Amino acid sequence: MKKITFFLIVLASSFTFFGQNTSEILWEIGASNSDLIINQGDTVTWVWSDDMTHTVTSLPSSEEKFNSKDRIGLGVTFSHTFTKIGDFSYQCNIHPNTMFGTIHVRVLGINDEEDEKLSIFPNPVVSKLTISSPIKIDKINISNISGKKILERNVHSDEININMSDYKNGMYFIQIESDAKKNTYRIIKK
């Protein structure tokens, strides 16, 4: 009995060693096919990038259920932490034809955790922003808080330096694409 108890304690505590990530999706009219690949236990945050009313709602066939209900306003957010493995489709119930996607949740393993150490620094940034990744980054997009694209660049490199000294102070969203995976991060320009 002591061996089983010890094994369960070690097993439960081992899950706390794996980092949990948060990915952001810019949620606005035309955000169709907003697919994302994440690890089990990760959180997805949808960020309203227009001032219209939207929802983030899992489809009835989805085993993982989530529903933001109606929300309105630029910068409003809704977050959900995914605890189950699988593919979970979702949509905006108000604009289902132009706002939809699928969250693909996979099992996080030890090697996966080591492979997923993307660094964006410094944040907040004053002049030079550095993005460093253990895998090649294919493309980056930077948008302002209104959703206007400020920068779009095909990269094919594992380290990128962006001169942000001419950017206005405020919040920006940087979308990074690599190996068919898209993640969005928030950065602050000072």
Average pLDDT for all residues: 82
CATH H-level name of the largest domain... which superfamily?
Cupredoxins -  blue copper proteins
Number of strands: 14
Shape: globular
The name of the CATH architecture of the largest domain is Sandwich
- Structure annotation, total helices: 2
The helix-strand sequence is: HEEEEEEEEEHEEEEE
Helix content: 10-25%
Amino- and carboxy-terminal Cα gap: 57 Å
Q: What class, by secondary structure content?
A: mainly beta
Biggest sheet, open or closed, and with what strands and sense? Answer: 5 strands, antiparallel
CATH level-3 fold name of the largest domain: Immunoglobulin-like
Number of domains: 2
Strand content: over 45%
Given this structure, which CATH class of the largest domain is correct? Mainly Beta
Structure write-up:
The chain is built from two helices and 14 strands. With 190 residues, it is mainly beta. The strands form four sheets. Strands 10, 11, 12, 13 and 14 form a five-stranded antiparallel sheet that branches. Strand 10 (119-121) and strand 11 (128-144) form a beta hairpin. The longest helix is centred in the N-terminal third of the chain and has 13 residues, at 2-14. It is globular, with a radius of gyration of 18 Å. The N and C termini lie far apart (57 Å).
